[in-house]
Amino acid sequence: MSWFKRKEKGIQTTTEQKKDTPKGLWYKSPTGKIVDTKELEQNFYVSPEDGYHVRIGSKEYFEILFDDNKFKELDPKLESKDPLKFEDTKKYPDRLKAAMEKTKLKDAVRTAVGKSKGKDLVVACMDFSFIGGSMGSVVGEKIARAADYSLKKKIPFMIISKSGGARMMEAALSLMQLAKTSVKLAQLADAGIPYISLCTDPTTGGTTASFAMLGDINISEPGALIGFAGPRVVKDTTGQELPEGFQTSEFLLEHGFLDFITHRKHLKNKVNLYIDLITNQPIRE
Amino acid sequence: MEYLDFELPIKELEEQLQKCQVIGQESEVDVTETCKQIEKKLIATKKDIYKNLTPWQRVQLSRHPNRPYTLDYIKALCGDSFLELHGDRNVKDDKAMIGGLGKIGDQSFMFIGQQKGYNTKTRQYRNFGMANPEGYRKALRLMKSAEKFGIPVVTFIDTPGAYPGLEAEERGQGEAIARNILEMSRLKVPVICIVIGEGASGGALGIGVGDKFLMLENAWFSVISPENCSSILWRSWEYKEQAAEALKLTAKDSKSIKVIDDIIKEPIGGAHSDREKTYLAVKSAILKSYDELKNLSPKDLVKKRMEKYMDMGVFKG
What we know:
The complex is a heterodimer.
Chain A: E1 26-28, E2 34-36, H1 37-42, H2 58-65, E3 71-74, H3 92-103, E4 109-116, E5 119-126, H4 137-153, E6 157-163, H5 171-190, E7 195-204, E8 217-220, E9 226-227, H6 231-238, H7 249-254, E10 260-261, H8 267-278
Parallel strand pairs in A: 5-6, 6-7, 7-8, 7-9, 8-10
Antiparallel strand pairs in A: 1-2, 3-4, 4-5
Helix pairs in contact in A: 4-5
Chain B: H1 8-26, H2 32-51, H3 55-62, H4 70-78, E1 83-84, E2 97-104, E3 107-114, H5 120-125, H6 133-148, E4 153-159, H7 166-170, H8 173-185, E5 191-200, H9 201-205, E6 212-216, E7 220-222, H10 226-234, H11 240-247, H12 251-256, E8 262-264, H13 275-293, H14 298-310
Parallel strand pairs in B: 3-4, 4-5, 5-6, 5-7, 6-8
Antiparallel strand pairs in B: 1-2, 2-3
Helix pairs in contact in B: 1-2, 3-11, 6-8, 10-11
């Protein structure tokens, strides 16, 4: 015997009238607030009840920053090699392959140019989902090339950092990406092209010791973890209890390293306001 | 509205006027004539009092609790275009020194200034407008950023002095101020400095070297506050009036000894009595100064600025 029985026959609901099938996908923020993923998406991936900024990747940031989500990706095909024949619990090429399959990304950064509020902006955005957003040769090269694009076309440059630091599997080569990216930023600075660094959760290790802290303005989102040595390392090394809020974006603002913290929904406006002010152009509405 | 001791006759007349108006509203008595007379007397009294202010009275006005502060000016001048920027990229974001970008008309400016609080809580938060080394380093960072992009700088000076604290010394208060003075002297963009309230000593000069140095009519500017001067030279706090007199710290005196370029007139009763009028006066002073400077090449600008400072000082032989 069935639980439900259709009494009326011949019911025909048009497509528009049909309710969305429940996706069964909910997001639970660290404070336990539950939100429908659709609603989360519409709210710039910020939990509406507690303001928790969910970790998002390049796809979502491009969608937030570029008008109508239109942009041209730069160097989309660059891929890592395995110059050191690195092997830990896994061979590096296998790790790369697994990461690519899992994330559908080529590496831990995507770079793109597009219109933001009607004017060109070059954005390099890291993806934490790809081996912890770690910076190897590909990340360094793509950021350097994107900065070059900015330099040649005189377009403001923005990096969205989201990274655990340098990529161990590329050892010293990955360390040198700190220098490589910083060199490019020096060239941008000499050319007087604005560079905005957005530090998102988490921005640690080699990224803070290079491009993440070198913006004409360094900005962040609420509650992001930003620091050189991670909190666990600091705690284990010093044996000290860490103060509350240690290495949060609010902590960094108080200690003078951030120009401001912005809610994600104001991000596009604030970045463009800064660009209009510092380039002495009329403010775009 | 708060009144200073020398403003008491004004307070009395304003209260009389109010009472008179209330009588007029609540009863049949025609008070128009009486009100008019009181108003007339009020205007005359105000004129009389504010025309002959002593230096000490001006010092009091410069510290008037209702006086507009740096952020009031910036918000009035820039409205929604103001974007505050924080931090010295070194140790701290100093709340006593604020800065950011904003537009007057279609021109961007980098605004920097000491900020005081409005009540006990915010006064403490702003450390009474006394910046630490990180405040001066934040100011310098913003000035260098403005220079990089060719944005002119406007500073609002309003401080009883740089903060004389233990940590301030540890972090090099003197070095921070010195560095600012040197760097400001060769900044390749126009720099306009305005004393809006108190301009005390190195704390003021740390954001006070520029092409144009202006003062509001009731602001003061000197090497020390009259109280501290009295305590050091007279060995008592009691001689602040004489000290204020002797220091020649008013806008008029500063102009006559050529340490400032111009005076911005305040409305009768001081900046706080008609804020809008004050904001307008400051705005037009900034734009006028900028107009005079904007067409100079960076090289000429710096040369002229340096020459201006070479001419300061009086000596013989």
